[in-house]
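Good morning,

Attaching, inline, the backbone tokens for the sequence recovery test we're adding to the shared suite. The designed sequence is right after.
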């Protein structure tokens, strides 16, 4: 299922979870432990920067009006594909392979005991093209808490929040693919302790993985 010809670091952990679940807070804590973070959202912005091939493909596929002063009008594109599954698939065919390649490169180049790939839509991909991951960490919250955070964070209506949540994978789908779970429904100290425990665990696993590959 992986992208042929690509090599990866000894041990890579994916951090995933639904919108407004607190993934950024979790990856920030791992970063404080010296772990390199490759973020799919950041990669998605990089691959459509002015002059990038993906930007030209998007303009050819969806219309030149989406490029304003050489830059992608991300909001207009989001509105264009949000309610159109076929349009979304065409966009993903342009962007997702490039995002994966950038994530793999950043993880491969990671100067840390292991690397983390922050991939929000991992469950939505059904794991396709992600067999280069060694472990999956789910950041979990209830839907009610997601909705509350989303409305507060993005200043949107509850109806729009529900629509956004409905477009994502279910908690059950995420649990089915996760090796580890952080319950992010408590205070920051609890979250810090969870990350500290997992960091120790991942360092051990990365060390064992490296030893096995040397042999």
């Amino acid at each position: 299922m992986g992208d042929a010809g690509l090599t990866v670091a000894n041990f890579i952990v994916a951090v995933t979870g639904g919108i407004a679940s607190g993934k950024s807070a979790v990856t920030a804590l791992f970063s404080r432990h010296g772990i390199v973070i490759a973020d799919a959202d950041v990669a998605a912005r990089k691959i459509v920067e002015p002059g990038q091939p993906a930007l030209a493909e998007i303009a050819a596929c969806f219309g030149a009006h989406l490029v304003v002063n050489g830059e992608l009008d991300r909001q207009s594109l989001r509105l264009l594909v949000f309610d159109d599954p076929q349009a979304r698939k065409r966009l993903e065919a342009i962007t997702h392979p490039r995002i994966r390649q950038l994530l793999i490169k950043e993880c491969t180049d990671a100067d840390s005991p292991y690397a983390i790939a922050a991939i929000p839509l991992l469950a939505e991909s059904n794991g396709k093209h992600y067999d280069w991951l060694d472990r999956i960490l789910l950041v979990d919250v209830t839907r009610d808490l997601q909705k509350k955070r989303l409305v507060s964070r993005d200043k949107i209506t509850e109806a729009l929040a529900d629509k956004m949540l409905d477009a994502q994978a279910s908690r059950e789908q995420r649990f089915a693919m996760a090796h580890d779970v952080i319950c992010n429904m408590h205070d920051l100290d609890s979250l810090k302790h969870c990350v500290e425990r997992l960091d120790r665990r991942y360092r051990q696993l990365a060390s064992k993985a490296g030893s096995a590959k040397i042999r």
